[in-house]
Structures are given as C-alpha cells and as structure tokens.
Amino acid sequence: MQNSAEYKFKLKELPKEQRPREKLIKYGPDVLKNGELMAVILNTGYRKETVMELSHRIIKEYGSKAIVQEKNVGRLMENLGIPLVKACQIVACFELGRRFFKEEPGRFPTIRSPEDAYRYLEGMKKLKKEQFRGLYLNTRNKIIHDEIISIGTLTANLVHPREVFQPAIEYLAAGIIIAHNHPSGDPNPSEDDLAVTRQMVGVGRTMAIEVLDHIIIGNERYVSLKDKGLM
After folding, report:
1. pLDDT tens-digit profile of 41-66?
2. Residue 142's pLDDT is what?
3. Calpha distance 96→85 (Å, rounded)
4. What residues does each domain of the chain span?
C-alpha cells in the first residue's frame, strides 16, 4: 500500500469546490491562483506529476513574467521536461494573450537605471534554477521584448550570442540588458559571468546593438556590472 505522505491527489479526487475548473465556472477566473489557471489549460498531468504539481512547477521554474514571453516550444520542452502537447498549449495560450493585449499601455516599463531593471526582474530571486534573460529596449529605453535565453549554470558554452542577438534583430531593439539569477543568493559575479558579459559586449559592438548592462540577481540584492565598471 502506498505511503499516505507520498500519495498525490488527482483532480477528480479533490472536493469539487477545490478543483480549478469548477472554481472557474462557479466564481470566475479572478479567484484562481496562477497555478490553478495553468492547470485548467493543461487539463492533465505528466508522468509522475499531477496536473497541479506540473502547473506550479512550470510557473516556479520559469517565473510568471518570463513564461508569458516564451515562444520557443522546443526550449520549453527541454527546460521543463514536458511533452510536446503541453509545451504547445502553454505557448499558444500566452501568444493569444499577447495578441489581445498587445497595445495595453504600461505593459512593458521604461528602464532608465539598474534599479528599474531589478524592479522588473525581481521575481527571479525566487527561482531555484539559474535563468539567463534578455530585455530588449527601443531607443526610448522601453522594453519591447523579454525572453528567456537559457536555464542552467551560466557559461560561454551554454549561451550562444546568436540566441541573445536574434531577438534584438527581430524586434529592432536598440539595446539589450542581459540578466541572470544566482540561486545561492550571492549576486557577486563569477569568472564565467564576466566572460559571458565580455563576449556579449564584443558581439554587440560588432552588430551596433549595445549591451547596456548585465544584472545579477541574488536574495534581496543585485549587482549591476555596468555600475561596477566590469563591462
């Protein structure tokens, strides 16, 4: 018999009032947490994860702001270890939302300082895995695109300049802010962090797309390599 502490409830085994779909029908979407809304979209779990566990893990590992901007099905499958159908559901859902609210004022802020960038990216401090992101700005320093570039320990081998600069070309960005988190909580840069920064700055000069800063996010504090004179 399975240990009760390890038993995982399926949605159909939960009381009706606790099931995301039933809550959505009865109370509307406002009362549902992000993980519950994701569970409604995914409908079923995967392998050893229930749909609720899968939904919460997706949001926790990717971050709510970043998952909204993810368009690459293959990358989503690889980073989260989920099947093709689940990855397609997620990408399609948020693409639909982007199209409906494309002109929503204030959706992306203007970044005028490292502190502005940190405020936008602050949710990364809660991530359990290292995540490398690019913020793509126009000539008025407004974010026009936000993309997860990689998940995993940051090295020059993991991050290829093509993955960083391709969105800049696609969205006609004037500048890029790169950022990543240190799950250890210490935002001080490693030698790999500095090497990646130098590589990206060099490529940016060649392409006339400025890498404006590299923000490293720790637990309740951050380091701006621009401010530290390290780029």
Report:
1. 998 887 778 888 899 888 888 887 78
2. 95
3. 16
4. 12-100, 114-224
The Cα 12–Cα 99 span in angstroms is 33
pTM of the complete model beyond 0.85: no
What's the whole-number average pLDDT of the chain? Answer: 87
Give CA–CA dist 89/203, Å, rounded: 35
Q: What's the CATH superfamily of 114-224? A: Cytidine Deaminase, domain 2 (3.40.140.10)
Worst-scoring range by mean pLDDT, 12-26, 124-138, 217-231? 12-26
Pairing state of beta strands 222-224 and 210-217? antiparallel
How confident is the model at residue 29, as a pLDDT?
87
The per-residue pLDDT for range 124-139, each reduced to its tens digit, is 998 988 999 999 999 9
The two structure tokens encoding residue 101: 């609210």
- Is the Cβ–Cβ distance between 117 and 109 less than 8 Å? no
